UniProtKB/TrEMBL annotation:
Keywords: Acyltransferase, Biotin biosynthesis, Pyridoxal phosphate, Transferase. Homodimer. InterPro entries: Aminotrans_II_pyridoxalP_BS, Aminotransferase_I/II_large, AON_synthase_class-II, PyrdxlP-dep_Trfase, PyrdxlP-dep_Trfase_major, PyrdxlP-dep_Trfase_small. Its EC number is 2.3.1.47. One of its GO terms (biological process) is biotin biosynthetic process. Residues 39-373 form the Aminotransferase class I/classII large domain. One of its GO terms (molecular function) is 8-amino-7-oxononanoate synthase activity. This is 8-amino-7-oxononanoate synthase. Signal peptide: none annotated. It catalyses: 6-carboxyhexanoyl-[ACP] + L-alanine + H(+) = (8S)-8-amino-7-oxononanoate + holo-[ACP] + CO2. The lineage of its organism: Bacteria, Pseudomonadati, Planctomycetota, Planctomycetia, Pirellulales.
Amino acid sequence: MWDDLNDRLDDLRRRGRMRRLHPRRIEGVDLIDQSGRRLINFGSNDYLGLASFLASKTMRVDSVGARASGLVCGWTDRHQLLAEKIAEFERTEAAVVFPSGFAACSGTVSALCRQGDLILSDELNHASLIDGCRLSKADRMVYPHRDVDSVARLLSQHRKQHRRVWIVTDSVFSMDGHVAPLRELCVVASDHDATLIVDEAHGTGILGDRFSGACESLGVKDQVPIRIGTLSKALGGQGGFVACPRVVAEFLVNHSRPLIYSTALSMSAVESAIVALEHPGEIRRRRDLVCAMSRQLRSQLGLACPASESGIPIIPIPIGSDADAVAASQRLYESGMFVPAIRPPTVPEGQARLRISLSADHNTEMLGRLIEGLPSF
């Protein structure tokens, strides 16, 4: 009955790409495996170390779950407060809160982009954006990574045949830490009457004077009307959001299926997000710390990158083959450090890598151990 699934799993095993869930405990920047071994965790997206901070600050909730979809009875006064705080944080008319960042991305793109539209999507966009594009009824074209000339060319060729054109991109690409050329994309979008949708999942909490992301740091927030973010990375909690004009928020509430047909964000996640946004000073202190740490590590490793990317706490170490990346990750594991090997399909073929994720809770001694354990590249 399941021969086809077993055949596909066997193929993954032959190619060394079989994935498994490994039960672990996490305490701060320590990862504790099933044997009780304690490792320094360089694999988490908790860039500011807020997950533990929020656990001690978040108020006790009377109900863990939200009990229903927000459109039934799951939207509470605390959900409303969170949405208002996000809109204030992002300086937009409104914000919509989703159960996850993935739901926010896929649910926004699939709802807004419809038949007669065209989507131009960066080839290295996150899976949630890709799924949103596929679920929409719009025509779709994928452009080479961060290639603004290709976007301009596609717009020149296809704009007139479509009702609306959407340019969809991550702001910070999660597997290499590169920043999208948002200024240039905004110019092209303006020239061709296109609309940008930007996912700030890895920019929120890290970039910008008010740490709302790459759109802020590059001075283009007013030119990007739809910005998607997550509460589960730098902000240390769970959930996703869309910061947008009020009319877009109302449209999503009425048309975004992941929002309409999912139980609303849990009460515990709502409270932790509210607490995070009520501590801008703590966010700034931790952001400055992890960004300085990223610059230090890049300098010590001899990694050159634009100044706009130097503080981003995602540092890829290129390896090449899947087997070599897994072996390098295993050697670091044996040395007491968890640095995940990233393989296709998450990254392109032949571009397997180690992905270092820094946290404000790491320290100089931990970075020294990491440098000693990394392979030459």
